[in-house]
Amino acid sequence: MEIKKNLSHAEEKEQSERDFYDHNLSDLSELNRVLFTTIETLEKSSIPYAIIGGVAVKSLGRPRVTHDIDLFVRPDDAEKVLEVLEAKGFTTQKRDPFWLFKAWQDEILVDVIFKSSGDIYFDEEVRAHVRRVPYLGSYVNAISPEDFLVIKAAAHQEHNPHHWHDALAVLKQGNLDWDYLLKRAKHAPRRILALLIYGQSNDIAVPNEVIQKLYRGVFESPVYMPESIVYPYRHDLAHMSATSEEGTESPIYVKGKIMEALTTDERIAEHDVKVVVSDKTIVAKGEVFTEEQKDAVNEVIHEIAPSYECKNLVNVRILHAPEGSEAIK
According to the lineage, what is the superkingdom (predicted)? Predict the structure, then answer.
């Protein structure tokens, strides 16, 4: 019989990670092979990148199973990423021109993400904080824990709660650059504030001063208002004022009005619909429960921005009644 000895915290962590990989290596071996092929291809092509998603959260200290690879790249590099991966035998697809391309090798998916929720880009600031971290005997470029927290908090929705728990796990690891986190929090200030308060309520060491600074920034200062954010790849929004030089409303304000209406208009009242505004086109995506709600999305957008073309890509969620009956005991 094996007798378990008392282990130090570091030894317990090392054993936990070793047990995790021992139990999941058969599932992860193909993914890791594709991961290192992808990284080697990008680095040989001098394409800057950072790993985000499940692989990143494991490198940051939270072991969990993942079945795909998430790359964060600059929008200007996204097509080049597909080209170099295709040359290595990957199947590629330009899934969404606004934020996502995809590549596959041996049924392993690589998501090529060039804009994350909260209008977060792989800009120079994010790139400067990327960490070169050890991973399975090699090294990968991982997103900084501070940027990881912001991306996860901004992406969290009811149908993907793992984003919230990934963020909490990294928050629990500590060793954060709090000043940098506060700076990046402008992309999702209320969500970061909620995350930090929730973390502190679960005995995670979050300095009171950080929460107080963020609270004041959100409720007592314009510093965290959307117009203060710099969008490096959206040149049409460079000045972020309410009106453009031609006197028309800036797209960021058009988007804000539409998003508010979609969540408050009684015809829709739906939080799962998002819009992207570019040039003279508005693309609506997400899910609603009825065809009437989908039609109302068009109506709301036309009422607020009649000069824009609306592309309604919203899906109607189909709910199936349960089969048979369930006995109540």
Answer: Bacteria
